[in-house]
């Protein structure tokens, strides 16, 4: 036994020496896993420290407090998701939409904790900076869809249709993570078909949407 060390200290495995960035990433990953399963107010710094195999003091050293950690963890998840939401140009609009959905669900599958943490909780958890993070992801997805549909300024009816579809995609992602009883390609195809159906309904209420719907149908299903 090393002089000056107790038997308990000698038996404790040495903590890995990690870079600052790597240690922050580990703490945020542990936090996201917890935030994906419980509301933020039900997760303590001690919980995060225990899950990460770190000390409470270390968590405070890197993040200052739980709210700062919560925001940093959600920002990390949002940035990773937004990096997948890049336009794929050159194909038919609905093909581009399908490709975007595949990238979206790649993130859902590969970063389940981050996705669930982003969308978990009610309005009380979505105020201030946290709400801005979540809304930022939705706005990025909205702009991507808008670009895929070759629409510069959507009408109120089209805007509502797209926002409704994004909400459906988010809900489908959370449900799929919980149950996984639908094959991913089937779910993705169903969501593309759902967009077509929503546009078909919206076309009855807006001339611009009717023109868009007919154009998409013509490009996707040429005579």
Keywords:
0% strand, Arc Repressor Mutant, subunit A, mainly alpha, transcription, single chain, 223 residues, 72% helix, elongated, DNA-binding, transcription cis-regulatory region binding, 2 domains, Homeodomain-like_sf
Could you characterize the architecture of this molecule?
The chain is mostly helical and 223 residues long. It has two domains: 16-70, Homeodomain-like (Arc Repressor Mutant, subunit A); 74-220, Tetracycline Repressor, domain 2, CATH 1.10.357. 72% of the residues lie in helices and 0% in strands. It is built from eleven helices and no strands. The protein has helices at 7-11, 20-35, 45-52, 56-63, 66-84, 93-110, 112-119, 128-148, 156-179, 184-202, 207-220. The relative contact order is 0.09.
């Amino acid at each position: 036994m090393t002089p000056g060390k107790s038997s308990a200290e000698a038996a404790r495995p040495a903590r890995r020496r990690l870079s600052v960035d790597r240690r922050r990433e580990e703490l945020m990953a542990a936090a996201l896993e917890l935030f994906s399963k419980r509301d933020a107010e039900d997760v303590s710094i001690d919980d995060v420290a225990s899950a990460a195999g770190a000390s409470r003091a270390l968590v405070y050293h890197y993040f200052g407090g739980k709210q700062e950690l919560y925001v940093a963890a959600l920002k990390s998840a949002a940035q990773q998701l937004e990096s997948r939401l890049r336009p794929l140009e050159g194909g038919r609009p609905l093909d581009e939409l399908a490709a975007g959905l595949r990238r979206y669900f790649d993130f859902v599958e590969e970063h389940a904790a981050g996705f669930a943490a982003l969308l978990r909780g009610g309005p009380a958890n979505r105020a201030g900076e946290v709400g801005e993070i979540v809304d930022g992801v939705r706005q990025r997805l909205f702009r991507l869809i808008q670009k895929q549909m070759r629409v510069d300024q959507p009408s109120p009816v089209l805007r509502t249709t797209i926002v409704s579809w994004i909400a459906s995609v988010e809900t489908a992602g959370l449900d799929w993570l919980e149950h996984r009883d639908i094959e991913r390609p089937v779910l993705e195809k169903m969501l593309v078909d759902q967009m077509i159906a929503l546009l078909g309904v919206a076309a009855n209420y807006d001339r611009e949407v009717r023109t868009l719907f007919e154009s998409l149908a013509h490009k996707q299903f040429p005579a």
